[in-house]
Amino acid sequence: MSNTPMAASPLTRAVLEIDEYVSGLGWDQPARLFALVDTARLRAQEPSLAAQLGLEDESETTGLTPIEQDEVPTGKPLDEFLATIAWPDAVTGCALTVERLMLPPSAEAQVPSDLDEARLAEWVARHPERQEVRMTVAVLRDGSRESALRLREKDTPTEVLTGPDLVPGLADALAATFAD
């Protein structure tokens, strides 16, 4: 992808590729789940699928190819859905994109302590300092992690934050999909 730095690790490149893809779909999108497969292995074991994905002429010998999965159900809490996933051995890792409202750390002291989950979400949605964010989080079987965060108000590829520990809870939930 055009905005993916070549010096980045294969996992970082995959996360940024997914972020760029989902960004092209616009905001207010449902959560999206991706399997991450080793590109060289995909080319060798599934040449017709690699051709469908436009990977047959890729010169890169290392890398991860994201493959979008079926829709993430909207009527089920995300953690419950992730707990139902088991990946085949051919899947090296997985990634998820999800949009959420976030508050800056300065607003944490203002959060009322007596709110249930639904009322807390409503309170955050009304907060004047709330920010809409798209999170793309990926994990590999070996424990590697990477995340990309994109704020709606700074919706450009140069404003995407990356790092392995930006969304630790979601990374933990994704890593659990590989637990035996």
Description:
The protein has 180 residues and is of the alpha+beta class. The chain has helices at residues 10-23, 39-45, 47-52, 78-82, 117-126, 168-176, and strands at 32-38, 64-68, 93-102, 131-140, 145-151, 161-163. A hairpin with a 4-residue loop joins strand 4 and strand 5. The longest helix has 14 residues, at 10-23.
List the helices and strands and how they pair.
Elements: H1 10-23, E1 32-38, H2 39-45, H3 47-52, E2 64-68, H4 78-82, E3 93-102, H5 117-126, E4 131-140, E5 145-151, E6 161-163, H6 168-176
What is the number of E strands? 6
Overall geometry comes to globular
Number of distinct helices = 6
Radius of gyration equals: 17 Å
Strand order across the largest sheet? 2-1-3-4-5-6
The proportion of residues in beta strands is 15-25%
**In sequence order, what are the helices and strands, one letter per element?**
HEHHEHEHEEEH
pLDDT < 50 stretches: none
Largest sheet: 6 strands, antiparallel
Q: Report, as a whole number of angstroms, the end-to-end distance.
A: 33 Å
Write a short abstract of this structure.
The chain is an alpha+beta fold and 180 residues long.
Task: Please give a handful of descriptors for the protein shown.
180 residues, six-stranded antiparallel beta sheet, single chain, alpha+beta, 6 helices
